[in-house]
Amino acid sequence: MSLLKLMGLAKYIPRLEPSLATYIAVTGACFLPAIVLGLYLLFDIRSRQADPAGCRKLGLRIQSQLADQHDKRYSGTGVEQQNGAASWRVKSLWIYPIKSCRGVELNRGTVIGTGMEYDRQFCFAQLSSKFPTSLDTPQAEKAEHKWKFITQRSIAAMATIKTEVWLPDPSSPSYSRKQPNVQSGGVLVIKFPKLNNNIGPWGRLVGLLTSIAGGAEHSVQIPFNPTPEQITNNSYNTDQMEIWKDSPKSLTIASTENADEWIQELRFYLGITNHLALFRISKDNSREVYRCAPRKEELGYQSKVGFQDAYPLHILNLASVHEIGMKLARDAPPLGALNFRPNIVITGGEPYAEDSWKRIRIGEYDYYVACRTVRCLLPNVNPATGIRHGSEPNKTLKTYRRIDEGDPKNACLGMQMVPAVEESKIKVGDAVEVLETGEHFYIKQ
Ligand SMILES: *[C@@H]1O[C@H](CO)[C@@H](O)[C@H](O)[C@H]1NC(C)=O
Ligand SMILES: *[C@@H]1O[C@H](CO)[C@@H](O)[C@H](O)[C@H]1NC(C)=O
């Protein structure tokens, strides 16, 4: 005799006939969590299978070295002194495989003549035509067009395009020398949000389900160093792409002109009306570095860059970022090191000590500090959201960081460097020793 019967409530409970359907329903309900878990694992495996075969992902697996970057101990006040000198250290290392897109944080890296290995090897460009043209402009001139590089300066949302570098890994079960990913020396992965075009409640449900099944973002894989065979097979042609005053010959990896689907999606995502293409710098590129850089006779090799703006390496003192961050307008988001797109973030000394460095040693290797970094409006873009602030840090920087007589109209923060040898190693925690200080005078493009 159950309690329900005693209370006369039993008649309100539907009697379940022990039919086959009931068994299935009850069993199904009991196993629902297991089914959900099973599907989750299936999708998880699917997404992991989609990782480039034969490779491992380059970069930090633990949390970012910059996770505590706003801590007061990096503000450069109460500097620890060692034998009367500040003890500088490398705090964080970054590469940006695609210019102006999100970077990859490293624990250690190799520096080659052009800067950090894998840094700025790719770049987006848009096709710009001569405009306006007049009626009597010759046809040939009207048809003239040029690929011009784009950055967050004009397209802030580029900050939200994620990049990954996957390198051949002989310990991977799918590794083989014939594997295309291995032959290309690894894979560049590009990820960006999928636009949800589904409207209404039903559309939203469909959107949700497809995002669970296929991920909420596009993911594209590109051979990092395409072999001649891959260049032919994928019809990567060569074209000139204008970046500042250079027009290096570059490989067209994808282009809306060729109707490559993912880059059409990216073009909509970024809201670009012109044709958009992704370029890879070619091996025989000749973006040689002069201006403030030491010459070949001094270095023993000719300094060159990939798609960096001007010099191979960018070093940033976290204390200087703190100092500026404290002076910003109240409504500005917290200023971080990544607003300034450094390769090397250092801590240990006072703000702006780096302004007069000429030569430094990091770990066991020497670097020439060629010049100061003259800032444009790019640091106004929040690197996490891709949203540009209306005035900061440009406004604050302009008030007191116009310190270089070579370009007195613009503010400076960070230093441009050229490696003293063609190959060196660098890692987080390396000691930084100042070998030489002196004057700087910025030479414009
Ligand atoms: C290139 O295409 C040829 C012919 O379709 C094929 O045999 C070869 O495996 C392809 N190579 C690569 C690297 O994709
Ligand atoms: C940058 O700051 C300076 C100084 O406040 C100001 O004159 C200039 O208009 C700013 N530039 C932009 C584009 O906001």
Automatic annotation (TrEMBL):
The chain crosses the membrane at residues 20-43. Residues 264-435 form the MOSC domain. It comes from the Eukaryota. InterPro entries: MoCF_Sase_C (IPR005302), MOCOS_middle (IPR005303), Pyrv_Knase-like_insert_dom_sf (IPR011037). PROSITE patterns: MOSC, PROKAR_LIPOPROTEIN. One of its GO terms (molecular function) is catalytic activity. Keywords: Membrane, Transmembrane, Transmembrane helix. PANTHER family: MOLYBDOPTERIN COFACTOR SULFURASE MOSC (PTHR14237), MOSC DOMAIN PROTEIN (AFU_ORTHOLOGUE AFUA_7G05900) (PTHR14237:SF23). This is MOSC domain-containing protein. It comes from Lepraria neglecta.
